[in-house]
Amino acid sequence: MTPMTVTLGLLWVVVIFLSLAVLALARQVGILHERVAPAGALIHGAGPGVGEQSPRLEVHALAGNAITVGGNLPAGKALLMLFISQTCPICKKLIPIAMDFSKSERLDVLFVGDAELSEQRKLIDQFGLDEHCFVNGSKIGLAYRVDKLPYAVLLDDLGVIAAKGLVNSREHFESLLIAKETGFASIQSYLKARAEPVQ
Q: In this model, does residue 195 exceed pLDDT 70?
């Protein structure tokens, strides 16, 4: 047996071992993929719940126009409210995502802040927000008991809360729409119901 043959034999053993290791790793990745559920917007217990009628609030946007939150919208429409702040870095990351998402999903969007007007003007200038769709004040936040940002509420065309929760990615916005379409309060409750055996 020549040294070349021994080396070739060892190389084949290493190749077979590595192939088996890659197959085992691929199997584990598949198992993890099944076990790890998609992340949805995080709901906390405060404020009006999903499926309840939204509080009806009369507010004014920064442009001066009157807005009725919780009122009826044209059939099939929905309103996405995003609670944001100039001092919240995640909010700044989410604003362009929310604008793009609302456009692609044909949602009306309302940005809600509670800060000094000068701070809100900076935010509006930075992201080119429409002052007709920006409300500044504590009225809406208090009605929904919003205590952490960024927070989103999705209202259907009848003013019913279709979904709500803390958001920090496009996937969280998508989970709000999935919750609205499926009738479940969150993606987690949907997955739990799907996993339960039918009786």
A: no
